[in-house]
Design a protein that fits this description.
Shape: globular
Strand content: 15-25%
Order of helices and strands: EEEHEEHEHEEEHHEEEH
Number of helices: 6
Structural class: alpha/beta
């Protein structure tokens, strides 16, 4: 049976011209950037031949193909690799990030521009929600966060009322004043605008998205590569 074309499509992927995922090696770090597409698992296997990595760094990815996102996340977890994020890591990229046995935000991009976003699946062509895929997604998120992801937030994440609805996790240092927080829900309104509100009392560490409270300092070679790759289109 042919696998249907599915996307975990985040806000940034709604625009045209999202580039395909790039694979770059810097020492023991594998840098993945750009959109996740249907060929990335096979490309990843080819890229890994004879390589030994300790860290997968996800840089400016709007998400993409659900199947490949799952499989890359499973590979990251099976290899007991750490993950880190630089800039936006949304949708299928967020699932790959959760595959890391240790998960950090890096200094590859300003902390205010670094975030992980998760949401439900929908069909690539029709944009119809695919709730039949939500139980598996809920299981993956719950398992990879060690059961810390709150059940009510998980329900809203994987069963969104609109396919563009998205839950963002920021580093706790992004908000230096007020109560502990760092989880934002962005909901599509009837007029097509977005309404984004913080979920009071929750942060990325508390719900298990992040495991390392320190911001990961990247070496000069890795930062030079990120500068060449640039920000998301």
């Amino acid at each position: 049976m042919r696998r249907p074309a599915l996307l975990l499509c985040a806000l940034a992927l709604a625009t045209t011209g999202a580039r395909a995922m790039e694979f770059n090696s810097v020492g023991e770090t594998l840098v993945l950037s750009g959109a996740v597409d249907g060929n990335d698992l096979a490309r990843l296997r080819d890229h890994l031949a004879g390589a030994h990595y300790k860290l997968v760094l996800l840089h400016e990815s709007p998400g993409g193909d659900l199947f490949n996102g799952y499989q890359i996340a499973n590979w990251v977890r099976s290899e007991k690799l750490a993950t880190a994020v630089s800039g936006k890591c949304e949708s299928a990229c967020g699932l790959i990030f959760l595959g890391g046995v240790q998960r950090s935000f890096s200094d590859g991009r300003p902390i205010g521009e670094t975030m992980v976003g998760l949401h439900g699946a929908f069909h690539f062509e029709t944009r119809e929600p695919l709730p039949e895929l939500s139980p598996r997604m809920a299981y993956v998120i719950k398992t990879m966060t060690g059961g810390k992801y709150p059940s009510d937030l998980l329900q809203r994440t994987v069963y969104p009322r609109h396919p563009d609805n998205l839950v963002y996790a920021f580093h706790p240092l992004r908000f230096k004043t007020g109560p502990k927080r760092g989880i934002m829900e962005c909901l599509r309104q009837a007029d097509a605008a977005f309404k984004c509100d913080m979920v009071e009392g929750l942060d990325a560490l508390g719900i298990g998205v992040l495991t390392n409270p320190a911001i990961l300092a990247l070496d000069g070679d890795t930062k030079a590569l990120l500068a060449r790759l640039g920000a998301a289109p």
